[in-house]
Amino acid sequence: MAEFKQAFELTLSHEGGYVKDPDDRGGETYKGIARRYNPGWPGWARIDNARKRRGFPKSLNTDLELQAEVAVFYRQHYWDKFQGDRIPAQAIANELFDTAVNLGVARTVEFFQRALNVLNRDGALYDDLITDGVFGPKSLAALRVYLKKDKPDYLLKILNVLQGAHYIEFMTRSPLQEKFARGWLNRVTIEKT
User: 20 to 30 A from 48, CA-CA: which of 12, 36, 132, 147?
Assistant: First the structure.
């Protein structure tokens, strides 16, 4: 079964430290956690206190309690939402986790369900899943059946295609976001094992 620590470390390698970019829709962020979308995250109080001291923002990296808060946040808001501990292939769990962090859990699970639907050999392996963005027992069961017949590679390729297409569409609608293109495209193949 997949391990959170590996997925978390891979994803954190793509997330910056403390950032306050006016073009980032999330606004002020720390390790990818946006204050605008997560104002109640306990880590913000620690960051606000650290801001008053010398060495900010580098000092945040040595705050072990803050780093623990980051890990708890990611586990609760992303990993647990798609039952990461129950995914039988680390590469798939890594991909789902990183994509969920960047695009949201529901969209990621929809990509996952769509991918499994086109890989079910026209319903011979398992019935089509409802692409509702909710990771439930049917999604997990379909994944397990798929992995008995195929390597993770095809599923991962489809997930990457859908993720990349989303970024292109997003940047086409909002050209100001093109400044983030290289970072986003680096995430299109996160699934390392």
Answer: 12
3-state secondary structure of 34: strand
Which candidate, 156, 114, 106, places its Cα nearest to that of 135?
106
Report which DSSP code applies to 123: T
Phi, psi of 31 (to 5 degrees): 50, 40
Instruction: Quote the tokens at residue 155.
Output: 């599923």
Q: Convert the pLDDT of each residue in 93-117 to its tens digit.
A: 999 999 999 889 999 999 999 999 9
Task: Return the SS3 of 16.
Answer: coil
Please report, for the chain, the start and end positions of each structural domain, with discontinuous segments joined by +.
4-79, 89-189
- Give the span between the Cα atoms of 182 and 102, in whole angstroms: 14
Q: What share of the chain is helix, strand, coil (3-state, %, to 5)?
A: 65, 5, 35
pLDDT band at 181 (very low <50, low <70, confident <90, very high): low
Q: What is the pLDDT of residues 38-86, one digit of tens each?
A: 999 999 999 999 999 999 999 999 999 999 999 999 999 999 999 999 9
Neighbouring-strand partners of residue 122 = none
